[in-house]
Amino acid sequence: MQTPARAEYVARINRVMDYVDENLGDPLTLDELARVAAFSPFCFRRIFAAFVGEPPPQYIRRLRVERAAQQLVAAPRKSVTEVALDCGFSGSAPFARAFRETFVMTASEWRRSMGPRAQHST
């Protein structure tokens, strides 16, 4: 059974997760997310990590990389840099690093491997 305090924390964290999803292409700061959750930044970081399983910056980065991976396939005419910027990365270098760490390949390699021909060959 969930206590009222825990239910309130869950609601606040869910509010932040929705906010992040709606604003993923924009710069997001810890202070801003803490305000959305109505916690101090210190408490927010601890509580978010406890409920979600990763700290806010890693959560945001993971969502951005996942969204970029989807866009690379869904919008093949967009450049990799355009996709990176649309997904909230500050430039192509931070995006390339994050993408390679997540998928162990470059964004261009991912796009080629997931493109129409790759999908028809399975």
Characterization of the model:
- The chain has 122 residues and is mainly α.
- It has 2 domains: 4-53; 59-120, Orthogonal Bundle (Arc Repressor Mutant, subunit A).
- The longest helix has 19 residues, at 4-22.
- The relative contact order is 0.10.
- The protein is elongated.
- It contains 8 helices and no strands.
- The model has no long low-confidence stretch (mean pLDDT 92).
- It has helices at 4-22, 30-37, 41-52, 56-74, 80-86, 92-103, 107-114, 116-120.
Summary of the model, kept short:
The protein has 122 residues and is mainly alpha-helical. The protein is built from eight helices and no strands.
Topology as a string of helices (H) and strands (E) = HHHHHHHH
Sheet-strand content, in percent, reads under 5%
Outline, from the CA principal axes?
Answer: elongated
What is the total number of structural domains?
2
Helix content: over 70%
Instruction: Kindly report the CATH topology of the largest domain.
Output: Arc Repressor Mutant, subunit A
Please write out the topology:
Blueprint: H1 4-22, H2 30-37, H3 41-52, H4 56-74, H5 80-86, H6 92-103, H7 107-114, H8 116-120
Helix pairs in contact: 1-2, 2-3, 4-5, 4-6
Quickly list its features.
Arc Repressor Mutant, subunit A; 2 domains; 122 residues
